[in-house]
Amino acid sequence: MLNKSFLLLCISILFVLGAGGFGMISNVKESKAESVAPNMVVNGGFEAYKSTSSDGWTERRPDGWKVVNLTGVAKATVDLDAQHDGTAALQLQGGPKPTRSAVSQNVSVRENQFYEASAWVKTDQLVSNDAGATFRLQFYNAANANMNKHITFGSVKGTEDWTLVTHRFQAPAGATKMLFEIFIWNGTGTVWFDGVALRKVTPVADIVLDRRTAALRLGEQLAAGATVLPEQAGNKRLTWISSDPGVAQVQEGMVTGVGIGSARITVQSVDSGVKTEMAVEVSAGGGYLKADDDTHRVKEDQQVNGAMATRDAEGNTLSYAVLDFPRNGASRLDPAGTWTYTPNADFAGTDKFIAVVTNGKGGIASSEISIDIVPENDAPMAEHEQKQTLKNTALKAKISSYDVDGDMMTYSVLLRPSHGTVALGANGDWTYVPETDYLGADRFTLSVQDGNGGNTEAEVSLLVAPPRTEVIAKLKETSAEQQHPRLMATADDFTRIKEGIQSDANMKKWYNNLVAEADAILPQPVSKYELPDGRRLLDTSRRVLSRVRTLAMTYQISGDEKYAERAWKELEAAEGFKDWNPSHFLDTAEMTHAFAIGYDWLYHYWIPERKELLRTAIADKGLKQALGEYRKQSDWSKATHNWNSVCNGGIGMGALAIADENPELEALAGEILEGAIQSLPTMIAEYAPDGAWGEGPGYWEYGTQYAVYFVESLHKTLGTDYGITDMKGFSNAFRFLIQINGPKGTFNFADGGAGKINSPLALWFTHRFGQQDAIWYHQNSYNADRGGLFDLLWYRPDTYASSTDAPSRDAYFRHVENAAMRSAWNQDNAAFAAFKAGDNSVNHGHLDIGTFVYDALGVRWVHDLGADNYNLPDYFQKNRWQYYRTRAEGHNTLVINPGAGADQNLEAKAAIVKFDSNADGAMAIGDLTPAYKQDALSVKRGMMMFDSRRQLLIQDELHLRKPSEVWWFMHTQAQIDVRPDGKSAILSQAGKRVMVQLLGETSASFSVRSAEPLPTSPAPKQGANDRYKKLTIHLSGVETAVLSVRFVPLADESAELVEPRVTPLDQWTLPE
């Protein structure tokens, strides 16, 4: 049997047996007492300790344990007065503000082995908006690398006496070591732990009955035999249950027929909950029936149908029901014996289901339907990768590839690098050797074949970076004699701006805006060290940065010392902070950026003592805090998202500002710059191939602006960015922002707000890459009246004056799999629609594959709700998919078979498979199947703007694995009036109206719901969505469905509108 799905089984058990738990319980049959495995935790009772207050401990340190403080400082000690048993317990006492601290121990584990962790917990006034007293398990492989397959369990808060917390889990494949962590998680108050244990367990995996059906006469008894597997299972206790004790009773496996009728006898493991059933038919005289087994064959991810006999040998009508459902698929069986079987996604091998058949005369039998699922060849998978190496240094790595079928893979080079050579090994190992003394970007493409016709390509993007000594030497050469300013601008740039203000109307307007902003800062009190959410200094860092940057530039242009002195007050106050909050490193990076600009742009104003103070702050509170990350590369330095550019940008600018002041700073800054230049390309590679950004438009702006700040500072300081901006996709990045902005806001997928993004980065991309679309955007869509500092920096009058046409009205972006279309540019009433497939696992991502937004008549009719509060408990961790706004149900997409778990596949990557555009309209079709693979054989969504771009069509086609529940959701702030037949609705807002209509012959109908979780969904405390309603379609018990919904703006009700017929998505075309 080949099961291509990877399963990490993690079972958290709190198992209570009672009369109401399973219906009537007739008997509990127990095996011998379960043997208890040794405790693998050393000193789990904390009895052994040393008297010391070192290494974070107070008074006593338990042997075998260590303590770490992540947020705040907890009092950690061995308490001799509050133990559960024995003579001691561990005590963690939070600080006055929420504290996150852990006591931990490493334990050796075996991959795929089951374990049970347990501990006694007691709390006293433990207050937490998070987990409180909790546990976390982290797994490491043989290379001592964190596998990022953490398990958290337990949550005890308030004041509770000793409570036992247990958790059963399976160590993931490849695990050799586990870090067992005991936490006070973002809490104040006190918690004690005792009896911490980790034991191997062998859970019950199966129960095999010696027979599956029984025909009994009244009063007849039958001994049912049950074998528990595996033989070495620790706890073999079983419960026996009758579904109808009036028909059949069970006592220690002895079944007695007491009344005419049918009953099911269920035997269940107390240990694991595994159960199996026997069907019993009781009649006055007994009965006989024989049923045949059957075997069928089907291709992977295809359905198979069949029918069983309708009558027995005596002509009695047969009736069927499922006794055992298949383990690797779904079956549907009707009473007449007609059945359908659908295998699980990607499953190949043998599966079966068992039917119980009765003849109405007391006869009962079972029939096993065995299904052979024949594997279809799947192409191998390979990851596009970004790598760095230093000049004249060979780089060795291995292509990250995987074949779901287990086929042997072979490798070849499709496209060789332009500035070096690559040697490829038979197992996918490769060695890249750059050209002698080459610095810059390079790339090559590899092909992976599986020998069965499947192949895929993987591009390796490279950056050959300079060593630290060369960076410092280049800086000293280009910025000779400690030339300042040099971050994003030089003295020549400021001279150019001063001269431009005198003659250019745009620049004069922007300068007046800058001065007004600076003047508003002058009377404000200086910033204070504030963590309003207990975690982030980020608001303060950004305030300091904005103020210093504005004041410093205003001084550069005006020469008025009051601006420089106010900047000094801001910097002096922030220099006095105890730290710049490196535990949330964005805060440190942005503050370092502020000090770098203040030091550099006001360099010639500062007296030596002030320079020394600023340099020391940049070095100690900024650069030195980043050294550990560059050396171990475990967090933001290897991230592919906005943290990478923000942290590298802020820290890198700090290094550029002070790199040539003295030998000590040269060494420090050199190491920082070597690390930052190698780290940033990991993030820049994510713009490939088209410039789009998976975190959404808001984080596009945040991440892109910091990338620009840093590469522009490299250019000004060193005369080069070492090829970073030559990397694939980056030059087109601004095109994504242009297209994702609609008349009434952005398409704000992921954790983003819907406000339009008016970015002066348009001018930088125009100046650097000659992006004509960006010029048009700044001139026509960007509110230039609000321009200021960066507009002055990046504006070039001759380029700005060049005429350019509007960008294309439609766009498709690969990688993020996003499509946008509109009826016109620069019209507030224009229609705009955008739709995404994409990757659910992207940073800041939501379960939003298939979602869309829609503007028309100057109103946004279909909204994305955006992010919820980042400070909600575990918003970025284990609880993320419990919050409405991150779930599929909180978006304008489909939900299939809703429940308490994630409502789309967390790892799904869905693609737009067709995109087309012409003068009359545009269309995009996405294959959403990966998001619903466990429930669906195929899910596709199409979006079309048609009828001279006056109407919008959203069409879904679903082919499901079994009869299913389907929800279609659309969020709006409009008033919704559903017509009596349920086939259309009128949306009304701001005096405008849009008709939404279901097309075709369908039983579906519209209804209206509040924007809140479904009854089956989790409902933790979270942000309210009171401003929104949902237009909804609800289907039950469907296996196939076509939902075709059109949107018609009712601007001119006398106009003739084309009413489309429902056409299958694979036949969609645009009229010529």
TrEMBL record:
InterPro entries tied to this protein: Big_2, EF_Hand_1_Ca_BS, Hepar_II_III_C, HepII_N, HylB-like_N
All residue ranges annotated as the BIG2 domain in the record: 203-277
Signal sequence bounds: none
Gene Ontology molecular function terms on file: lyase activity
PROSITE patterns on file: EF_HAND_1
Highest taxon above the source species: Bacteria
Protein name: BIG2 domain-containing protein
